[in-house]
Write a structure and sequence with these properties.
428 residues, alpha+beta, Phosphorylase Kinase, domain 1, Phosphatidylinositol 3-kinase Catalytic Subunit, Chain A, Domain 5, 3 domains, 5-stranded mixed beta sheet, 34% helix, globular
Length: 428
């Protein structure tokens, strides 16, 4: 068995041991187990890492996942882009991440997103990637290394080490990095890709600005330039306190909505709303924010609204819906939403007509007070799409193309039709 010690850092910056995870190695038929540390259970700040499947209880909990660790811990690991780097970091340290998934946690060490960090009970302990990222002064070097790595081009040793330090932790499929600016703020930097046919970086910045106008909690975001690179900087919402020493635990709804670790989750806005009612410290506020986000996703065409793009974070002693992240208009390529919209029966297709009144009906099904006023505010924000694009320098032809699509989504009469180049953003 590979035994992993799990530590957690609270919002005040205090770090304590919270659990032990035992994962089988190849050929070991014993099942994986998770167990909270007895001292953690006594701590007044202790909270469940997963309120559904990992309640605050003593004794071992069986884990039934291919990786051998709970989905709540899986949330600490990166997706495709960062995962490739994390595996290379593991191999550099003579670990076997493909055969022993627990070695990914050892390689991640104290550099994970969120509030958890990991170290083996025995053997070599790795420091992991810097949790504070790299200084913004290196942003040009980081951007070039990330884009080259994503495209499969060779990197120098210094470029590769820079990438390991900056880009191992962030999730998502696209190239990203953790960067700290001159004021000590920590940002997730998002880069372009060689095969982007649209300026995805600027379009996402415009989408976040529209989300702000729609009354949603949105992290601070800005566009910066470094040489020929355009970069979207989004402030991290899982860090807090002086010098960003405090951490907030995060759990995705992909994890929260699984009945068991080895089963696919329920997938619908209604399911997310019910989970918020069960676990949020301020359910009425958070469900309203969910509804606003659902309306925004429908009206701007953000159909990549899968469950990993919705999270609860541990804030001020309770669970809260996280700020908005990963919002971007798709076009003709993906008309259906990734999860189900409310309805009878529910569907993942957007309304073909009477969009605003249909959204109001969905709000009533979700028991949202003042649903009509919310839809009107979100619709008004979406109507300012061209303004948001101008703020962030989206090329005019791309702003017009996506703007026509948003007009169609909102149900505007007779939107102008012209020769359209399809927007084909790759997964985020």
């Amino acid at each position: 068995m590979v035994d992993i010690l799990v530590h957690i850092t609270f919002e005040d910056g205090k770090r304590i041991r919270c659990a032990k995870l035992s994962c089988p190695e190849p050929g070991d038929r014993r099942g994986a187990t998770f167990q909270y540390d007895p001292e953690y259970l006594k701590n007044p700040k202790a909270h469940a890492l997963d309120p559904v499947k990992l309640p605050l209880e003593s004794g071992p909990t069986p884990v039934r996942t291919p990786s051998g660790f709970p989905q709540a811990i899986q949330d600490s690991l990166p997706d495709r882009f960062g995962m490739g780097l994390l595996k290379q970091r593991a191999r550099q340290n003579r670990l076997r991440p493909d055969e022993v998934p627990a070695h990914l946690l050892i390689a991640m060490g104290n550099g994970a997103m969120g509030a958890l960090d990991f170290q083996p009970c025995k053997g070599k302990r790795l420091k992991g990637p810097p949790g504070c990222g790299l200084p913004q002064a290196q942003i040009r070097e980081i951007a070039q290394a990330a884009i080259d790595y994503d495209a499969g081009r060779p990197l120098s040793n210094s470029q590769f080490q820079c990438l390991l330090d900056a880009s191992t932790a962030p999730g998502g499929a696209r190239p990203k990095a953790l960067v700290q600016d001159e004021n000590g703020k920590l940002y997730l930097a998002k880069f372009s890709r060689d095969d982007d046919r649209m300026d995805i970086v600027r379009l996402e910045a415009a989408s976040l600005t529209v989300a702000t106008w729609a009354g949603l909690p949105v992290p601070e975001h800005k566009i910066v330039s470094a040489g020929r690179h355009t970069i979207l900087m989004v402030e991290r919402f899982d860090r807090t306190g002086a010098n960003l020493q405090g951490h907030r635990h995060r759990i995705s709804f992909d994890t929260l909505l699984r009945n068991r670790d080895d089963e696919a989750p329920r997938e619908g806005y209604g399911d997310i709303a019910e989970a918020i009612r069960d676990w949020s410290a301020q359910p009425h506020t958070d469900i309203e924010h969910l509804y606003r986000l659902m309306c925004l996703n429908v009206l701007v065409g953000n159909t990549d609204d899968h469950l990993r793009n919705f999270s609860l974070i541990r804030k001020d002693g309770g669970w809260r819906l996280s700020p908005v992240y990963d919002v971007l208009p798709y076009h003709h390529e993906r008309l259906a939403h990734s999860i189900l919209l409310p309805g009878n029966p529910p569907t993942n297709r957007p309304p073909e007509e009477n969009t605003l009144s249909t959204l109001v009906d969905m709000g009533r099904q979700m028991r949202i007070p003042k649903a009509k006023a919310i839809v009107e505010q979100v619709s008004k924000a979406a109507s300012r799409w061209q303004e948001a694009c101008a703020l962030h320098g989206v090329p005019n032809i791309q702003a017009a193309l996506t703007g026509r699509y948003i007009q169609q989504r909102r149900g505007d009469n007779n939107p102008s039709q012209g020769d359209e180049e399809e927007i084909r953003p790759t997964p985020r």
